[in-house]
Design brief:
Largest sheet: 10 strands, mixed
Radius of gyration: 22 Å
Structural class: alpha/beta
Number of domains: 2
Distance between the termini: 68 Å
Helix content: 40-55%
Strand content: 15-25%
CATH class of the largest domain: Alpha Beta
Amino acid sequence: MKTFYALLLALGICLGFTFPAMAEYPAKPIMLMTAFNAGGGSDLSHRLIEKFAKGVIPQPIVVTYKAGAGGEIGWTWLVGAKADGYNIGGVDLPHIVLQPMLRPEGQPGYKTEQLNPLCCLVFDPDILIVSEKSPFKSFGELIEYAKANPGKVKAATVGKLTGDHIFLMNVEKFTGAQFTQVPYPGGSKAAPALLGGEVDCYFASTSNFLRMQGARGLAIATKDRYELCPDVPTMNELGYKLESAKYRGLATPPNFPAEAQAYLEAALAKVCADPEYQEGVRGAGLLPYYKDGKAFGEIIEQEKEKARKTLKEQGLIQ
């Protein structure tokens, strides 16, 4: 009998110290870091989470910006953020695998494995676009000109060592064309640069293209026609077996509390299953692509191998 009461006491202590702490989470707003400027695909994805998490998560999710260096400033901040359950961040693939691979030895910055995958949110293929005022009416016309005039065509991206950049490198590899990259801190800066004539083309996310007025899509890097812009020809049908896309999701800092990680993963799964949320995602030019933390981690590993192969082919890494 004494043993029985001792077990009850032990159980009561466990319950008293564990369950109330979990029940109180979250007790304050959760900060969601965006590593790019307002107005781009990452920002819109996070704003939708901020909006539709209301009513699912009892505390607000608050979007904050730490833009620069193609996202590297924000992701370096994230891995050093306080791991108390209240700091999370948006992560973009393949950006988060490219940057650590190409960072000079000894230079400070985040490592891909320091980012704990929380969930994948959206799929956003890469696309090559020009202004509607551009003399280039097709992918073939632009490529032929760029091949005949190496480096003369100025191409916007959202930063060096980003998904836009690797898409540009792959187009150069497949076609033999040579561009001059002009990096911008986000789609909200690159798009006006294209429309204003600062650059000749933009290696972009499709979500940025779909939100623009006055741009023409020349080729999209998907195997089949993309449902959100079915009139744009694919790289595949143009004769280049090139598929390139961004996956946007969320991650947490190292040593993030397991209980908070599990709570947020479950809550975000519910948010992402909401038909109104999915409609909002499509309205922002993005394709809903929810995956839990484990599946998102597998996507990160797959993208890491693809990026390593491309960088080796370019002679940028051994």
